[in-house]
Amino acid sequence: MTEAEFIAVLRLLPLHVAARGLVDDTALLDASPLVVTTDTLVEGVHFLPTDPAEDVAWKLVATNLSDLAAKGATPEGILLNYPLGGDAWDRAFLVGLAEVLTAFDTRIIGGDTVTLPPSAPRILTVTAFGSDAAAPARSGAREGDALYVTGTIGDAGAGLAIALGADGPSELLAAYRRPQPRLADGRILAPHVYAMMDVSDGLLIDASRMALASGLAVTIDLADVPLSDAYRAFSGDRLAAATAGDDYQLLFAAPEAFVTDATRIGAFSAGSGLTLHDSGKPVLLPSSLGYEHRPRG
Amino acid sequence: MTEAEFIAVLRLLPLHVAARGLVDDTALLDASPLVVTTDTLVEGVHFLPTDPAEDVAWKLVATNLSDLAAKGATPEGILLNYPLGGDAWDRAFLVGLAEVLTAFDTRIIGGDTVTLPPSAPRILTVTAFGSDAAAPARSGAREGDALYVTGTIGDAGAGLAIALGADGPSELLAAYRRPQPRLADGRILAPHVYAMMDVSDGLLIDASRMALASGLAVTIDLADVPLSDAYRAFSGDRLAAATAGDDYQLLFAAPEAFVTDATRIGAFSAGSGLTLHDSGKPVLLPSSLGYEHRPRG
């Protein structure tokens, strides 16, 4: 599609009033305060060249909305930085974009379309804006707080293995390709918890980042990491689940007595670093706690 | 550099209070209303693989600030989506980033770093936020308005030719590599003009976009397009200047009697489309009015 054709379809999607009909170079946002977050997805790094374009659109928006969920924010809308990439892919992407915007009541605020050199991997960026946030930081955990996580962990990691050829159920593949940002949970939790973030790079690495930001040590018991029935049937490997990433669940610190549907998986104490237990017994840390971006040069 | 090393240097640059020290996944912006704009630069498309990383950083931020200038906004800060790309390039990029942030009193609000597959072109995105904007749209030109442009046109186009090997002065090369967003002009003009935008893709194509958005025809006289002495000495080709792009001057519609340092280059009338004159005589439109993104597929 040409830039003009692509933007003509974007205009048919839900537009934020700030977009001014997408006829200008800028948007004018009136809500305040605003939670702002941005994520870039790279073909071959964050998604597979074989992932359907509809699912890439979904994941691109959903991962950003997951960051808003961790602040208890209500989505206002998104900016989309999009590389035009061939008619069929562009059209399928727009279908997935319409689906994810509708699913989470989110609107287009603006963006930029570019052309890539031939054979370059697709690199897509979304910036998301949210309002009405309690916005707990990741640095607010206190000594003695318990560590909780919503939902189940490891489904998306299993889904990635299935996308790469392993045998497994479609619900695990969907967890990888169509993550569900926990917006409702985030709005309920945010005013009451001391620290919160989403699990994107892996439960262990993200928990250790919360501990580092809060100036504390954290202990996690692998036996307490919540697994889905589908994941138990697929492999049930708890360490793989806790380091796989792409879960987009909410990880938060709150008092031991906190009443929540989320699962208590550990606790914060004075000190630093991550200690791993399995049913109460210390176990060695794995060589990788999750996904970290490394330089290519 | 690793992601952690890169972010550690970012923390030494001017940080917006909304960045919360870059220890969180989200920023919390309190100004309202906000002008928001985003631009993506692609290696091999928007900049040359041989362009110094310092200059790429400058251009990436400056092109976004130019969109803020066209709305009369004062820069608040930026989000940076950055592909880690090798120690030397990353460090040089950070030097240029510090320079452009300092030059235009702009701060880091947040961003995302990613790793690219080997040999992928660099793709960089900046999203810029501005406050206190009068925010004239590009669609507000009225029948009978004159069309004005600030500064001179064509210098950056000549600078691109020089970067590609042509002989020419360093000031033209600098116009291409270190564009100067017209922030002060924008703040002065924005409350008084009827339509305004920056010239990024080429004077003729951008003027025709303003006319289209305003539902009007526009006539431009090539003989009135302002050229620098350096450009006259380099080539003096007015049609090349008016279609080259990357000027980052401000293009605006205002009454014929408007008092301004900018140059009157044309006028709006009922109808549609662009008509080109040269010293009052009609001339044929060139086959390309400027830069348009085309699909690769």
By CATH, the topology of the largest domain in chain A is Phosphoribosyl-aminoimidazole Synthetase, Chain A, domain 2
Strand share of the residues of chain A?
25-35%
Which protein chains are joined by the largest interface, and how many residues does each one contribute? Answer: A-B, 72 and 73 residues
Low-confidence stretches of chain A: none
Q: For the record, what is the CATH homologous superfamily label of the largest domain in chain A?
A: PurM-like C-terminal domain
How would you name the oligomeric state of the polypeptide chains in this document?
homodimer
Fold and architecture overview:
The structure is a homodimer of 297-residue chains. With 297 residues, chain A is an alpha+beta fold. Chain A has two domains: 129 residues, 60s Ribosomal Protein L30, Chain: A, CATH 3.30.1330; 138 residues, Phosphoribosyl-aminoimidazole Synthetase, Chain A, domain 2 (Alpha-Beta Complex), CATH 3.90.650. A seven-stranded mixed sheet of chain A has the order 7-9-6-10-8-11-12, sandwiched between helices. The first copy, chain A, has a four-stranded mixed sheet with strand order 2-5-3-4, with helices on one face. In chain A, helix 2 packs parallel to helix 3, helix 2 runs parallel beside helix 6 and helix 4 crosses helix 5. The first copy, chain A, is globular and about 60 Å long. The two termini of chain A are 33 Å apart.
Write the layout of secondary structure elements.
2 copies of one chain form a homodimer.
Chain A: H1 3-10, E1 27-29, E2 34-42, H2 53-69, E3 74-84, H3 87-103, E4 107-115, E5 123-131, E6 146-149, H4 155-163, H5 170-177, H6 183-189, E7 195-198, H7 203-214, E8 217-221, H8 229-234, H9 238-244, E9 250-254, E10 263-269, E11 273-278, E12 281-283
Parallel strand pairs in A: 3-4, 8-11
Antiparallel strand pairs in A: 2-5, 3-5, 6-9, 6-10, 7-9, 8-10, 11-12
